[in-house]
Structure formats: structure tokens, C-alpha cells
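Lab notes, practical 5.
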Amino acid sequence: MKFIISAFALMGAASLSFGQTASPSATADKAKVSDTQAGTPARTDVYHVHFAKSALGKAAQHADSLKKQDPKAPMPGHYVMFRHQDGDAWDYCVIEHLGTKATVEAVRPPLPAGQRDLNEWHTDTYCNGPAWADFARISVYSDSINDLPLLERATDPVATNPSPTLEAVAVARGWRILRLFE
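Output from the prediction step:
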């Protein structure tokens, strides 16, 4: 069993915080200090998170449209798209880094009909999270020594319920070991 989580570690592990946050204050500054001291990156940046379900028979076209970042994006290249392997409740998740501040227009121009027809539904939210350098880390979770080449390329390799051989390598290299079923 292996899980590859590229550019963000499934939201929770990346310390993204959804919803409305309080305005800056001395309390917020103290929270940043304590987060940083605890090894958690400070939540300094804003992200747009877009979940989408493709219309029937339109998944490939939908993917092509989602892969194109808006040329007017505030942070060109700070954009990642994920495809749900099973196409369960959603097909795609797109996360775009907006920088340390963002303005959201209440009324956006409608999408062209051809692009709009690719969606069955979508949802958008904005959240705060770590700086892009922390967010863009690559985490790999695996239980098998067969994935060693992939684990070696990751910035955050995690041996998950590892085989004895993988566990020995993980211990020797100081990688995290995650035990889910004990």
C-alpha cells in the first residue's frame, strides 16, 4: 500500500486552516511564535482550494481546463492539481497559492459555456496555510521497500506500517514511522 501526496500532505498534515480567521492582533502573533516553536510552519499565506466533480464523460476535458492557471494569477506557477483516483465524491482538487494577501471579487464573470459544461459541481474556499516553500514539500507514505526509490526523492518520506526491511531503512535514515493499525 502506498500513498503519494504531492505538494501538500492532504490538507490536515499541511496545517491548512479553513474558514474565517480573526484579524491580526497580539494574540495572533503569540500563536505564530508558539506554532513555529512547536515545529509547525506559521500560517502566513492564503490559498484558494477548488474541489470539482466532472460532468459525465467530460473528465479529460475538465482536467485540461483545470491545468491552466489564470495568466493574471498573483503567484504564477504556485498551482497544483490533484486527481481523485476513484473519482468518488470529487474528481479534482486544485490549490492555488495567492500570496500573503488576497482580494476576492464578490461577482466574477461567468465561465464560457464550453468550460462551464465540464462541471457537474464545484466548491471554492479560501484558507490560510504555510508559506509556499513549506506547502510544496513532497510527502510519500509507503509500507514497502519496493518504494524506496520514491521515498528517497521525497522531502518528507514516511514509513507507514512498514515492512521490517523498510522499517530498518527508515530508522537508519531518521524518517518518520507511522503506525496506523496498532
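Observations recorded by the TA: The helical segments are 26-37, 59-66, 113-116, 132-135, 148-153, 164-173. The mean pLDDT is 77.
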